[in-house]
Amino acid sequence: MLTMLFFPLDIRFPTSLSGDGTDAMNTDCDYSSAYVKLYTDSDLTGFGMTFTIGRGNDIVCLAIEELVKRLVGKDTEEILANMGKTWDYLSSDSQLRWIGPEKGVIHIALGAVDNALWDLFARSRKKPLWKLIVDMTPEEIVNATAFRYITDAITRDEALTMLKEKAATRAEREAKVRELGYPAYVTSAGWLGYSDEKVARLTREAVQAGFNHFKMKVGADRDSDLRRGKIIRSIIDDPQYLPPGLKPRDPNGPALAGKNAGPTGSVLMIDANQVWDVPQAIEYVKSLAEIKPWFIEEPTAPDDILGHAAIRKALKPYGIGVATGEHAHNRIVFKQLLQAEAIDVCQIDSCRLAGVSEVLSVLLMAAKFGVTVCPHAGGVGLCEYVIHLSLIDYIAVSGTMERNVLEFVDHLHEHFLYPCSINQNGRYNVPSNPTEGYSIEIHEASIAEYEYPNGTYWKSVRGATTVA
User: Fold this and answer.
1) How far is Cα of residue 348 from the mean position of the Cα atoms in its chain?
2) Per residue in 374-386, pLDDT tens?
3) pLDDT band at 6 (very low <50, low <70, confident <90, very high)
4) Kindly report the CA angle at 431 between 410 and 455, in degrees rounded to 5?
């Protein structure tokens, strides 16, 4: 049974010092993890986290503590037998639900707890999380999914039919992605706080590493955005920067058609992080059309479904799509975005949604509506998480990775026991360690250094401030 909770840990990394994570809305990000361990009466332990950018991480930890109280003393196997039912149970505490419902701090805290349970589940079966789920029967996957409030978009029977249609060919897709890796795109070169020189250098390095999809932050200054976009385009569109022996990709091929790919087959995306009103977003993005972005990400408030639909309609003649989801509160927001035809790209987040069970519901809806899933990652731990989710989508749900790309940001992976990795072709390697679960366990040395406010790093900062 689940015996006790290891008190949630507030772990913060001082990324604001280097400008990592900076964009038009978020200018001083200290990437942070609200981290939890779930213990059982055996040696089995589950690890989970949700992501924030600093202040407020402690509030999420308090919410995690309250949610886990509902699990203590429960039989572990009964909890794992029907993860959809368990998710419903965790989200149904009426007093905690009142401070949501199913959004905000309480919802991302539930993400940490649900993710920890899935980690524990995968470890108990000695499989990586993705493998645990793709080895499930269609019926088991449906039972693991959160369906409340979305049956007007997809029913359990529809989901079951979709999963059964893909089941017979799962093994072929698994073998293919193990061989090739999962397609990725890079954001590390495009942070708003970087100098032009650093943007150019990191872009060249990303091209050499095999990437052909690149994203940059926009929205603070139009002239600066155009200048930085042209710098990136001048590098990714020039064959001289391609790795030795790599030929340009066909920009009109099925994987790149409609993405505004340049002559080398490279794609540029832009991300405003919610900074604009709807009319402002439309005019601003039109003015960036010359750098030919595939999509504009988070052009306005993340829960403005009709606003996203209006932006998409206005930008369609310019060949620019709309992507969002990083801050979509829950599956209901995704349902409405899909029903309103408001997005071209669905960007699930492993922690903003309340864990794997809710992510499964969005993957199923996106597959039904024929919308490409390109998860949000970056931050701390998110890349480790979302490779599992993209593998589930490809192998068991949508059956395609041809047009999908998964975000990769090269920050903080060294703090994890099972860090994600990228192959020489700019693709995620498939997690394969049978003991890694959901790949989110943090090194104890990293916790000792960056736990807030008592880790050695944060104590040293306070000491330096006091001396000064």
Assistant:
1) 6
2) 999 988 999 999 9
3) low
4) 50
DSSP states of 345-386: EE---TTTSSSHHHHHHHHHHHHHHT-EE-----TTTHHHHH
Contacts with 101 (C-beta within 8 Å, 6 or more apart), sequence order: none
Could you tell me which of 104, 20, 26, 17 has the C-alpha nearest to residue 298? 26
Cβ-count burial of 106 within 10 angstroms (0-12 exposed, 13-18 middle, 19+ buried)?
buried
Q: What is the DSSP letter of 336?
A: H
**Three-state DSSP state, 438:** coil
Q: Per residue in 66-111, pLDDT tens?
A: 999 999 999 999 999 999 999 999 999 999 999 999 999 999 999 9
Q: Which H or E run includes 293?
A: strand 293-297
Which residues are part of the catalytic machinery? Answer: 217, 376
Angle between the N-to-C axes of helices 356-369 and 83-90, in degrees from 0 to 180, rounded to the nearest 10? 110
Residue 136 contacts by C-beta under 8 Å, 6 or more apart in sequence? 144, 396
Give the whole-angstrom CA distance, residue 48 versus residue 114.
Answer: 8
Q: How far apart are CA 323 and CA 374, in angstroms?
A: 9
Main-chain phi, psi angles of 109, to 5 degrees: -65, -40
Alpha-helical runs (H) found in 256-379: 278-286, 305-315, 331-339, 356-369
Residue 4: enclosing H or E segment and its boundaries? strand 2-12
Instruction: Reply yes or no on whether the pLDDT at 350 is more than 90.
Output: yes
Peptide bond into 101 cis (omega under 30): yes
What is d(CA 398, CA 166) in angstroms, rounded to the nearest whole number? 8
255: tokens are 């994987």
